[in-house]
Automatic annotation (TrEMBL):
UniProt xrefs under Gene3D superfamilies: Plant lipid-transfer and hydrophobic proteins
Protein name per its UniProtKB record: Bifunctional inhibitor/plant lipid transfer protein/seed storage helical domain-containing protein
Major subcellular site: membrane
Ranges for domain Bifunctional inhibitor/plant lipid transfer protein/seed storage helical: 35-120
Keywords assigned: Cell membrane, Disulfide bond, Glycoprotein, GPI-anchor, Lipoprotein, Membrane, Signal
Membrane topology note: Lipid-anchor; GPI-anchor
Family in the record: Belongs to the plant LTP family.
Signal peptide: 1-25
Record's subcellular location: Cell membrane
Transmembrane segments: none
SUPFAM superfamilies: Bifunctional inhibitor/lipid-transfer protein/seed storage 2S albumin (SSF47699)
Amino acid sequence: MVLKSRSILLPLLLHFLIIAHCLVAEDALDDSNPCGIFFTKFTACLRFATGKIRTPNKECCDSISDINNDEEKDMLCLCYLIQRIHHGNSTHLMIMGVQETVLLQLPSACNFEYANVADCPKLMELPPDSPDAAIFNNFTSSASPPSASPPLTYAWFEGV
């Protein structure tokens, strides 16, 4: 029994470390990347974000709880993450299977009272009628087609 649990645990741990490395690029904790700390916290939510579990666990919600406490920077980082996945601009996250629809549900799935993805267009300073704003405004629909407009780019966000 011990041998069997070790044989499962080692590949799982290795997989987690690879994912964490992909999310947190070498310079992610550098001051030039304001989302580096958020990505470190977000690794606790990968099982939910990839659809492996139906609801986020306590560790996930606790690790990103700053998005619920007037920490606009962390919520902004989640918004950028969703936007990048929507446009297919994050190869690492797409390879890992991070799902846009699941990320859109993350604040409500964690029962965060003050964090809402509908606030992303305002936080990101997007025009309300832009295709990128629609990503967040139409998140209750089952699937939204990719926008035809080119995605916004943020130089410090390119490593993710």
